[in-house]
Amino acid sequence: MTRYLVQRLVGTIPVMLLVTLLVYGLLHLAPGDPASLLLPEDATDADIAEARARWGLDQPFAIQYLYFVGNAVQGNLGRSFRFAQPVTELIGSRLPATIELAFFAVLIAVLIAIPLGVFAGARPDSATDNVGTIFGLFGISMPNFWFGIMLILLFAGVLHWFPSAGRSEYGVAGQTVTGFYFIDSIITGNWAGVADAFKHVVLPAVTLGCALAGILMRITRSAVLEITREDYVLVARAKGLMNRVVLWRHVLRNALIPIVTVVGLELGTLLSGSIIVETVFAWPGVGNLLITGVTSRDYPLVTGIVLVYTVAFVAINLAIDAIYAVVDPRIRFQ
Amino acid sequence: MGKHARLLGLVASLTLFALGCQQAQPRPQGSSGAAASNTAGSGAAGSGAASNAAPASQASGGGTSSSGPTRVTIGVTETIESQNPYADSISLGYGIWCEVLGCLVTMDPQTNTYKPELAESWEVENPTTWVFHLRKDVKWQDGSPFTSADVVHSINRIRNDRDSKQKQNTAPLASVEATDDYTVRMTTKEPTASLLSYFADLLIITSKAQYDKFGPDQIDQQPPIGTGPYMFKELVPNQRLVIAKNPNWWGGKVDGPDEVVYRIMRETEVRVTALLNGEIQIAEFLPPHLVDRVNSAPNTKVVSTDSQEIMFLAMMPKTKPWDNKLVRQAVCYSIDRDGIIQGVLQGQGKRLDGPIGPASYAYNPNLQPRYTYDPAKAKQLLAEAGYPNGVDVDFYTPVGRYIQDKQSAEAMAAQMNAVGIRAKLMTPEWPTLWADVQAGRTPFYYMGRGSVNDPGPALSQYFETGVSPRIGYSNPQLDALFQKERASFDENARKQALSDEMSLITEEAPACFLWTINMLWGMAKNIDYAPRPDLRIFASDIRVH
After folding, report:
1. Does any CB of chain B come closer than 8 Å to the CB of residue A133?
2. Where do the DSSP E strands lie in B164-223?
3. Per-residue exposure over A264-295, b if at least 16 CB sit within 10 Å of its own CB, e if not
């Protein structure tokens, strides 16, 4: 297992090089000049030329890229043009918000989709199945920027259940320890902070989790449908086990492999989905940072974020591989 | 378990989930006394439905209370990410940092005159030398005295800080020196009568002692120490910046709210929803189509202000057919500005009869010549220019950069088409368009120029020979007027010189000046605040009833 993990990790090095080269190249190919975009409109041509030189933009592309890679290897992703701070610090300060949001999105998706998928798969063509299928279609086809705004209008605007945007309320949020608002509030005993964190995360997490829930429900349903036809399920039923036990212990356990795979794959999609959701909900995460980086052609920032996303994607896939072994003890890594 | 029972269970669990969410509704009264004490709230209640959960939320956000401090939360579109006041050049930042740290000079938007701030007076010693006399009763919030060394340090930092994006504010300066503790002498590269326009609400003064103590790497990690009416309290990047009254301000009692929270909310719908449910009390920049929604709510109102952003059509005379003045004038005659203001901008704009509007310095309501909407004249001019059968042109417009920009451009294209200027609308994304405009690669475009308070520098940037290639216009007569205007230190003489410049530009028409778009602000009814055309938000101007 360890050897397998090391092999996989080493294999990611060329992937990351390729990804950075691609992103760096595409950003340079895209029209628009960071200096002219980031300096105010009354900046003089001399100011713009000076900024270009300061940011190394007057160097040839190859030199800029090699310089970036050289620094990145040493853990230095450069200094953001837009935010005037080291990219690693910027990403580090925003990552907890994105992870927190993704965690709750997955949690919501799993809590809704798996029971729904199991019930739907156990009784195909029943009312439960129809409701579940409609829900699944709804989740998959809903554009999340629209869904997010609808949630804001309803739950913040009309019902006043949740705040319209942001991650915390001024005066409630306490001391920052880990950057994870929930964890920080719990370890500092700030229960108002926990409630505040919960209220702020619900709408963006539901928006983000909705698409995942839709897909997950469909996958669970079809996996359950398939497994209920297996002989061992028939045996379980024949020996008189309660339907509930058959479903949750025999069927679901065996359906978990495709479910875990999809959750893993979709976590990557979740990261990209969070870009839109974070913008709509003014959620101060990495996605929000990426949007600003792209619109201002902040080369170091965008490349740095994509690099972190790549690492996260690889890590998630590795973690999923490791989970396979837990879910299905027959799986061994060579 | 029967089929129906399972369905029922499903519905019940979803309902429970929703109820669980609802039970969390009362806003935490907070660990902070300030948050809790505001819960009495006043009239800031949002829409009618706000009677249950909202009072707590809006109270925590603002309004006033007979017992506790007042807090106003403003939904803003820009963001402040760094405690380095020079790292960005945005209206929001200038407003906040001028109020927290202090600025040398300010501009009174009512009278368009410069007023003392940290500099109590100034004089022009000779056309290239200015002397600023500083206030002697000012102390930094740590108790140390404010002196001329701080001003010199600040200008040096603006020019040398690796993250500075404000170098343009010191562009006219050749050198700066402190002649004594309270006097600063500045030398300009050439006579610059508009020098104060580079400084007013722009030249942020920071403490030299603080900088020397912490050094360039640590200074922006420290809580900023200022001299202004407000003090820095909290910055949560990409979420909010909070300031609180300075009880020891040199100017005496501060009349604004005790605390002001600038909350970053880029989405318009989110700002409006937050305003209506009382989470915020002021919302920046509403689009015209949401005005009715805010005005019809019982506790909110819309306040409109003139803009200093002039919208224009630029035509590069180095390219055909724009090399012909008659074609450029034909464009100006072909556009029904009043019609577009009413139809497309829903009445939220002011026609420009010249380069600037009434919100800018040296506005002359009698400026000549003027272009009326006259399609027949446009056709005639086009024929005289040698295009009796019309002419094909590419017309570039930004999309989503300015209010109703593409829609306005579509309307203008249709009107130009009607007189024979067959405009093909091009809509590149903003970074592409802006880079091309700045490099002089876009012959014909719709654009805005913001922050035109004193029009001198902005007009020079677009119309003086060799200053920028954005229009690439060159006219020795106009260049001479610019030189004269910059050397006119008498206010009336300078205003006359500016009027002469603007008349000539209007006549020659390298650009058609169209309109300014009113800035619309949503506010709770218990807030009294007149937004400034320069878009600075000074907390001390806000009143809570």
Report:
1. no
2. 173-180, 183-188
3. bebbbebbebbbbbbbbbbbbbbbbbbbbbbe
Closest CA to A32 of B174, B459, B223, B438: B438
Which tens digits make up the pLDDT trace of A185-220?
998 888 999 999 999 999 999 999 988 888 889 899
Q: Are B493 and B10 in contact, with CB atoms under 8 Å apart?
A: no
A148-183 pLDDT, tens digit per residue, is 999 999 999 899 999 999 999 898 877 788 889 889
Mutate to test the interface with A, among B84, B239, B243, B261 (most CBs of A within 10 A): B239
Q: Looking at beta carbons, which residues of chain A come within 8 Å of B471?
A: none
A52 inside 8 A of chain B by CB = no
Q: Which of B31, B94, B449, B461 to mutate to test the interface with A (most CBs of A within 10 A)?
A: B31
Burial A42-59 (b: 16+ CB within 10 A, else e): bbbbebbebbbeebebee
Phi-psi region of B102 (alpha: psi -120 to 50; beta: other; left: phi over 0): left
A111-123 per-position pLDDT tens digit: 999 888 888 888 8
The Cα B460–Cα B411 span in angstroms is 29
* pLDDT value, residue B399: 93
CB atoms B171 and A38 under 8 Å: no
* C-alpha to C-alpha distance for A95 and A101, rounded to whole angstroms: 10
Q: CB burial class (10 A; 0-12, 13-18, 19+) of residue B2?
A: exposed
Quick check: A117 and A200 in contact, CB under 8 A? no
What tokens appear for B387 in the block?
A: 């295009």
CB B515 within 8 A of CB B350: yes
User: What contacts A57, CB < 8 A, 6 or more positions away?
Assistant: A33, A34, A35, A64
Q: Return the structure tokens found at A266.
A: 């979709």
Which chain B residues are within 8 Å of A174, Cβ to Cβ?
A: 31
pLDDT of B132 higher than 80: yes
The model's pTM: 0.85
> Kindly report the CA angle at B205 between B201 and B209, in degrees rounded to 5?
170
Q: Say how many C-beta atoms besides its own lie within 10 A of residue A26's C-beta.
A: 12
Q: Which residues of A touch B467 (CB under 8 A)?
A: 44-45
- ipTM of this predicted structure: 0.86
**Most distant CA pair in chain B, distance:** 96
Are the C-beta atoms of B314 and B447 separated by less than 8 Å? yes
- Tokens 């807030």 correspond to B527
Sequence-distant (6+) residues with CB within 8 A of B513 are B310, B311, B312, B352, B353, B354, B355, B506
Chain A residue at shortest CA distance from B275: A157
- Calpha distance B220→B213 (Å, rounded): 12
